[in-house]
Amino acid sequence: MTKTIGLIVGSLRKASYNRMVAQTLSELDASIAFKWIELKELPLFNEDLEAGDGPEAVQVFKAAIQAVDGVIIVSPEYNSGIPGVLKNAIDWASRPSRSSVLRRKPFGLIGATPGGMGTVHAQLQTRHILESVQAQVLPFQKLLISQVHTKVDAEQHRLTDEKTKEYLQAYLQKFVHWIDHVPTLD
């Protein structure tokens, strides 16, 4: 059965390296349907805005997460941490806590940065936050792309490094396989 994977990019920048990585990911396997889940329209989290059904952009965002079999977040690291726009999105999606669209949803984490350490700090923080809201995060797997600026064609907005594409392909296969084997605890 075809899987539908949501892609969330933790950067709003037009020429985001992480968007280039996510675009490449979406082209690696024609048997998987990919759905872009955008963050740019989400307001800053504010409980006062939750009245009724909440803002329309939040409703659209939550529905997009609900509609997919799993979500892969492809995100940079800012100041050794999770980008604010991504944290804001997770905060919105985590509400209401008992019926959050994040509960038991499979997530994968990938990150790219021009720096030398990949996105290790941001991924650890994102994993911690997702697990605290009872999302299921692919265990024992990290895809940290360092010095990404040397692995892309910036003019064409494309990832060009073949070794990195191989890592992405392997990660994607593990994630899709894992979705069918995620243990559910009640």
Automatic annotation (TrEMBL):
One Gene Ontology cellular component annotation held by this UniProt entry: cytosol
GO molecular function: FMN binding; oxidoreductase activity
Superkingdom of origin organism: Bacteria
Domain NADPH-dependent FMN reductase-like: 5-149
Matches recorded under PANTHER family: CHROMATE REDUCTASE, NAD(P)H-DEPENDENT FMN REDUCTASE LOT6
Family: Belongs to the azoreductase type 2 family.
UniProt-recorded name of the protein: NAD(P)H-dependent FMN reductase
Source organism (scientific name): Paenibacillus algorifonticola
